[in-house]
User: Fold these one by one.
Assistant:
Number 1:
Amino acid sequence: MRSGSLKQINQYEYYGKKFRIISINDSSLPKAWYGGDKYAEARIFIGAYNSLDLADFLSYLKRNVKWEFPDWVQLIVKEEIDFMFKIITFNDDSLIGIPVE
């Protein structure tokens, strides 16, 4: 993800406020806080939100974010009533959700 993509994502309006996700390597977080014995080699961004309109957010991502490699983008989501996470990918101009146990 280019830094421009992150800026575009953070322009999303969420209950009248700007949306905010951050990198797991953000300087405001402790180094390697996520466990394990090495640094993550993937670009991972995190955030937690109450009552996020997922359909609207996904539509925003597809319409407004210029992905360098859209087929590589994955959104991992667990909604409040769900027992499992699901992975949403952007393939062939559609959104595909895959449950993750």
Note: The chain has a mean pLDDT of 83.
Number 2:
Amino acid sequence: MTRSHDTPENTDDRLPPDKADEASTRVDDQVGDVAIDADRGRRRGVIAAVVAGVLVVALAVTTGFTASWYVNDRSREHLDAQYIDTARQGVLNVISVSADRADRDVDRILASATGDFRADFASRSKDFVEVVKQMKVTSRGTVNSVGIESSDDHEATLLVSATSLVTNGAGAQEDPRVWRLRVKLQHDDDGILIEKVDFAI
């Protein structure tokens, strides 16, 4: 008996050249797309980081500017309040005098004065005290309103409206006197002092 041997088929898994090129192209395209997507992702990340950094810097600058503005504004408000207090008290010192304490009244006025106003009042202070005592003057003053006409870090001009009730040996019994004064203040290392007092029209 003759045995027959089946010859196995010769199978070749390799694709034809044209198909192989097409498949390789598809793979290359897919790899390229993945690389492009990855690159785009990295770029987006970089751009997002840059934008975030810019926003942080802008916010810091804006916050710093706002804080600086707030501090400066608060400092100006505080200084203007000091100007108002000084003008109010200065006018009260001038229009509130008494024969019983005339010397102390003069000292108080001079303590808050400077410049021409202080020099002028000091030169007349002796006569002022004598007249107040001889006429038995008593004057009680009240400041009705104070307004800032102009101000900066070194000086200010304010308008002061005040009233005083005057009693003296000539017969006045709490007679009202109305005052409208323009007060110029000077601000330096010695504090805030009255430099000039004029009647306001």
Note: The beta strands are 97-98, 138-151, 155-167, 175-188, 191-199.
Number 3:
Amino acid sequence: MRTPHLLRRLPFRRLAAALAAAVVVGLGLSGCERPTPLVTMESGGHFVRTNAAQYERDGTVIQKSVSPPHITVRPGSAINIDVPTSVADRGYFLVLGRERVTDKISETHYRYVPAKNTPALLVVFALPEAGSSSDQASGSWPFLVTFKP
């Protein structure tokens, strides 16, 4: 009994399809840019995280449209902030509303207890890279903080 022509070619077609898919995936991955570092906030067991709205990498500023994630905090409760080592090594500070509320922070984890209980934008700003002549922040991660008893 002879094998039909179509069945003899089926393994080749599968192999060709698999190779084509691998090439497409490879090309797609090589075109992706590295993501910006994520910053995470936690309060009362609720976690939110975001990519940077702006981030300087290798002298190039990357800007993205980011909707600030919302976190609800009980008055007097702490907000735990986690940043990657690359941000902690540069140093960072917090701004609540329009007021800088911390000095330079160099740890990957920081515990912040807001003094005011008014809703505000809490932004994590990364300091410029070492050796940079700029005095502008090298990254920013916005979070919307509201308070609820």
Note: The helical segments are 5-30, 85-90.
Number 4:
Amino acid sequence: MSGKRQRRSRSRRAKLQFPVSRVNRFLRERNYCQRLSSCAPVFLARIVEYLLSNILVLAAKEAYFNGQKCITQEHLYQAIQSDEELYQLFTEDTNSVVALLEAKGN
């Protein structure tokens, strides 16, 4: 009964599977901004985990419809191609817009 608290990671506190500390490290190493809020990596990890879970659910449905138990790259590709919003997110046009925004920022 010493009163010490057990240490909990930020991922566990936010109830996430995605590593918040790793996202924080990547954001700081890449120097995307001069100052970084403590909740920014938690928010970004939550977004990435949400996107990943949606993609995996769609890929699992594709695998099930094809009569397979394991998800392959083709199932992931088909899942992204079949969902309009995910397809729009992963097209090259989005990448060029991000590159333009980064170029304007520098």
Note: The CA atoms of residues 34 and 56 lie 34 Å apart.
